[in-house]
Amino acid sequence: MMGQSASHRLAGLENCELREGTPLEIDGLEIASVLAPQSPEALVDAILALRAEGLAALVVGGGNRLEVGNLAQRADVLLSTRGLSGVHELDADEGIARLGAGTPLAQARAAAVEAGWELPLDAPGPGATLGGVLAAAATGPRALGYRQPRDVVLGLDVVLGSGDLTRCGGRVVKNVTGYDLAKLYIGSRGTLCVIASAWIRLVPSPQRVLLLEASSADLGAACRAGLRASRFNSARSCVVSFEGDAEPRVLVELAGDETTVVNDADQLHAELETRTVEVAALDAVRARSLGGHRLAVRLPLLPSRFEAVVERLSSHPCSLLAYPGLGYLHVALDRVGDAPGDEFGEGDSMAPWFEMMDEIAREARGGYVVERAPVDLKQQRDVFSTSSSPLPVLKAIKQRFDPDGVLAPGRSAGRI
Ligand SMILES: Cc1cc2nc3c(=O)[nH]c(=O)nc-3n(C[C@H](O)[C@H](O)[C@H](O)COP(=O)(O)OP(=O)(O)OC[C@H]3O[C@@H](n4cnc5c(N)ncnc54)[C@H](O)[C@@H]3O)c2cc1C
């Protein structure tokens, strides 16, 4: 048995595509075999086969953010959800949809709009899938209006790492008794289960959407203005962006009925001297601030700490994207200082920077997540700056849901 390729050992699974392609490199691991079950039942068989063969898998949706998490200890195959896609049900009267996990977000959005609703998920990424967004608990700036992914999910069908197909919640959230396990699975990044499908509560399409922008020479003032703007009735998103030498910008998206949007826009204009810009500018700012950098960190913050923390970080050569109303901040950088030798990866040059992040997190009584980093940095540190106290619970949960470590072993906090 030893020495045979993963594909060879998994051949013959029914209703499951198996392909050997150009190896995909994720965090230094090269994975060439792709297993794509075409139904939840085939997914159960695939996971049972992986267990029986002692193989490990990385779940893949659109593949936009496979690098988030600690380094995987092993990964023999990519377990693709592309065969689990489709709009299974869309109730245009109630605004409830049941969608396959592999459904591209763009397709789910279009189906919702056609039925007169909106999909309240705005995570970016070309070809991002519903399952990938839920598994990553990925949010975009519109979470201020849409709320977080866990708030819009009514139910999930999942296959655990043990191979059990289970359902939590459903068409109506009242189906949940006891602990709502969907809250655990959302954000578990493919380490406990594979999400097969989800019931989503859609939101009514707004009558009017307006994106307003203002610049400010003063970053602190921009943060204060952003926080106030986040409290407007129709504020659907509010970001403060700071990119190197450019002036800080505040972008506020208003969405709702015509009267409220126009009233809020007038009030905001009086306060901030805003100009109206194309709605697409919001996604462009986000992509520019977060895309392509060597290191990206997500840091939760109390609204009262925003100004001080943003001022402190802005003295380093980084891009900041702050969501004052949502209580978190993205920090992206390529070097730690302007002097030669400040490129990271050289010796221990990042240590003082991480000490500063640890201090900020301690003051905020929170933790941060290193969402992107070079492999050598990930070898040195846990990307989840969690205190060690929840680790025994995390270990017990992993053991219960994925006893043989089939799903992305090593990727969770504490390298579990
Ligand atoms: C330019 C850019 C900006 C971004 N900005 C943000 C941002 O501001 N905030 C934010 O939160 N995210 C952000 N993201 C992340 C991104 O939106 C999502 O993480 C991604 O789109 C998820 O979709 P995917 O299908 O590509 O998932 P993938 O990248 O394929 O997978 C993401 C994770 O989920 C797991 N997974 C995938 N499908 C399933 C499933 N069905 N069941 C269980 N596990 C699964 C994978 O193993 C992996 O750990 C950004 C991405 C890009 C490219």
Structure in a nutshell:
With 416 residues, the chain is an alpha+beta fold.
Uncertain runs are: none
Q: What's the tally of helices?
A: 14
Structural class comes to: alpha+beta
**CATH domain class name of the largest domain:** Alpha Beta
Give the percentage of residues in beta strands: 25-35%
- Please give the order of strands in the largest beta sheet: 15-12-14-13-17-18-16-19
Question: What number is the mean pLDDT?
Answer: 91
- What is the radius of gyration? 22 Å
CATH homologous superfamily classification of the largest domain: FAD-linked oxidases, C-terminal domain
By DSSP, the count of extended strands is 19
Ligand catalogue: flavin-adenine dinucleotide
Total of domains: 3
Net shape: globular
Query: What is the CATH topology descriptor of the largest domain?
Result: Vanillyl-alcohol Oxidase, Chain A, domain 3
Whole-Å distance between the termini?
A: 27 Å
CATH architecture of the largest domain: 3-Layer(aba) Sandwich
Please summarize the sheet with the most strands: 8 strands, antiparallel
Helix content: 25-40%
Question: Can you tag this structure with a few keywords?
Answer:
416 residues; alpha+beta; Uridine Diphospho-n-acetylenolpyruvylglucosamine Reductase, domain 2; Uridine Diphospho-n-acetylenolpyruvylglucosamine Reductase, domain 3; Vanillyl-alcohol Oxidase, Chain A, domain 3; eight-stranded antiparallel sheet; five-stranded antiparallel sheet; 14 helices; globular; binds flavin-adenine dinucleotide
Give a structural overview.
The protein is α+β, with helices and mostly antiparallel strands and 416 residues long. It has three domains: 6-81 and 400-409, Uridine Diphospho-n-acetylenolpyruvylglucosamine Reductase, domain 2 (2-Layer Sandwich), CATH 3.30.43; 83-204, Uridine Diphospho-n-acetylenolpyruvylglucosamine Reductase, domain 3; 208-367, 3-Layer(aba) Sandwich (Vanillyl-alcohol Oxidase, Chain A, domain 3). It is 29% helix and 27% strand. The protein has helices at 6-10, 40-53, 105-114, 130-135, 143-146, 149-152, 182-185, 219-229, 258-272, 280-290, 306-313, 351-363, 375-380, 391-401; strands at 16-26, 29-37, 57-60, 77-80, 87-91, 96-100, 117-118, 153-160, 165-169, 193-201, 203-204, 208-215, 235-243, 249-256, 275-277, 295-300, 318-323, 328-333, 369-372. Strands 15-12-14-13-17-18-16-19 form an eight-stranded antiparallel sheet, sandwiched between helices. A five-stranded antiparallel sheet has the order 5-6-10-8-9, with helices on both faces. A hairpin with a 2-residue loop joins strand 1 (16-26) and strand 2 (29-37). The longest helix is centred in the middle third of the chain and has 15 residues, at 258-272. The two termini are 27 Å apart. Flavin-adenine dinucleotide binds at residues 58-66, 68-69, 81, 101, 123-125, 128-129, 131-133, 135-136, 138-140, 189-190, 194-195, 286-287, 290-291. The site of flavin-adenine dinucleotide has 34 residues, from strand 3, helix 4, strand 10 and helix 10.
